[in-house]
Amino acid sequence: MSAAGRSVLLIVGGGIAAYKSLELVRLLRKAGIGVTAVLTKAGAEFVTPMSLSVLTGETVRQDLFSQADEAEIDHISLSRAADLVVVAPATADLMAKAAHGHANDLASTVLLATDKRVLMAPAMNVRMWEHAAVRRNQAQLEADGVAFVGPDEGEMACGEYGPGRMAEPAAIFEAIQGLLDGASSTPAILPPPAARPMAGKRVLVTAGPTHEPIDPVRYIANRSSGRQGYAVAEALAALGAEVTLVSGPVDLPAPAGVNLQKVETASQMRQACESALPVDAAVMVAAVADWRPRETANTKLKKAAGFGATLELVENPDILRAVAAKGPKRPKLVVGFAAETDALLANARAKLASKGCDWIVANDVSQPGVMGGAENTVTLVTPRGAETWPQASKTEVARKLAERIAAAL
Ligand code: CTP
Predict the structure, then answer these.
(1) Among 113, 133, 289, 403, which lies 20 to 30 A Cα-Cα from 38?
(2) Other C-beta atoms lying within 10 Å of the C-beta of residue 354
C-alpha cells in the first residue's frame, strides 16, 4: 500500500540540520503524506515557524501551554492523530528526554503520550554522539521500540569529522515510507512503544509434537496440539521480539509476525534450532518424541512379515539440553517445559538441573483436557523457587510468560 494519504507528526529540534527538515517536509507533501509540525524552542533558533507553516500548510505547534493551540487540538490528541512521529533533527537533549520519559515541553510530552511508532534522525557533534550517555539513551530508545535513521558520517558544521550529521532528507523519507508501509499491514494502531519491551531481542520457540516415521504410513507421535508453543511465540512477537518458531506437525495457522519453520522429526527440529542460534532467549515448548525407530522402512511394513512383534527404538537428541549447554551461543535465558502426570514439582526441579536450563514451566497433564486442550495450569520453577499460576487459557499463560521473559532480559 502506498504511503499517500497517511500523516506524520514532525518534531523539529534545535540543530543546524533543522534546515534539512524543510526539504523533508517538501518530499513528504509531494508524496501525498500530510505533515503536522512541532517546533521546539531551540528548533525555532534555526528555522522559522513561518517557513514550516507554509511548507506543511498547517499551523506549527510550539507551546505546551498555548490556549490557542490547545483549543484547536489538545496535545494528547495531537500525539495520536498522525500515523507516525518523526523527530528530525533529534538532538542529544530530545533523545535524553525521550529515553527518560520527561514531559516538560510540547515535544517531549508528545513523545511520551503517543501510541504510534517513533522515528528519530539524530544530529549532533561527533563527541556528543559517541558519549556514553547518548549511547545509553539510544540503546534505551531502541529497546522501547524507537526506530533510527542515521546519523551519517562526514564533516560537521563545527569542523569536526565523524558520525553525527543528520541523515539526508531522502534517506529519512525512505525510512518513513518503510515504517508507514509496515504500519499498513498491521492493525490500525501499532502497539505503543512502551508495550514493545522485546524490540531488538531474538527468541527461539519450539512447539508441537514430532513425528518419528516407522514406514511411509506409520509414525510415533504424541497428543501435543502445539497451541501452547504457538501462543508463546505470538505473545513474544507482540512484545516486539524477533521470533523463530520451529514447529512439529500441527494443524494451526502461523502466528502473526513470527518466522515459522515447520519440521517433522526430532532430528529436523534440532537442526532448525541450531540454525536459529544465536538468540537472546529460547523457549522449548515442543513435546519432542524421546525415541525414534532405529530403522525407517522405505515401503509399508506388512503384518504378514512379522511387523509389530518388536519395534527397535533409539533415543532422540535432547534439543533443550543442547541449547542450554554452556558455550558462546548459549542464550541468556533458556526455558524448558515439563509435561508431568505425577510428582510435578520434584520432576520439574530434577529437569531444571539435568537439562541445564534457567526455568522450567511444569504442567500437570494428568488433568483431562490439558494435553491438546485450550486451558493450562502451570507452575514456573526457577532455581529460586516455584510459583503456581491459576488455571487460564493457553493464550493468557503465554502472555504472562512472555512478560516474565521480557522482564528477565
Ligand atoms: N525436550 C527437547 N528434546 C527432547 C526431549 C525434550 O528439547 N528430545 C525438551 C522439551 O521441549 C521440554 C523439556 O525438554 O522443554 C522437557 O521435556 P520432557 O519430555 O518432559 O523431558 P524428558 O527429558 O523427555 O523427560 P521424561 O523422562 O519425563 O520424558
Answers:
(1) 133
(2) 11
Same domain, 226 and 174: no
Of 158, 194, 325, 350, catalytic: 158
Cα of 365 from ligand 1 centre, angstroms: 14
130, 161, 181: which is the final residue of a domain? 181
Residue nearest to atom 12 of ligand 1 (CA): 337
Total-model pTM:
0.59
- Closest by CA to 285, choosing from 402, 406, 384, is 402
In a domain, residue 86? The reply is yes
Instruction: Judge contact between 233 and 205, C-beta under 8 A.
Output: yes
Domain that holds residue 400: 193-408
Residue 267 burial (CB count, 10 A): 15
Domain shared by 85 and 217, yes or no? no
Q: 273 catalytic, yes or no?
A: no
Q: Quick one: cell of 126?
A: 561527533
Per-residue confidence at 196, pLDDT binned at 50, 70, 90? confident
Identify the residues whose C-beta falls under 6 Å from ligand 1: 206, 266, 284, 286, 288, 290, 316-320, 336-339, 351
147 within domain boundaries: yes
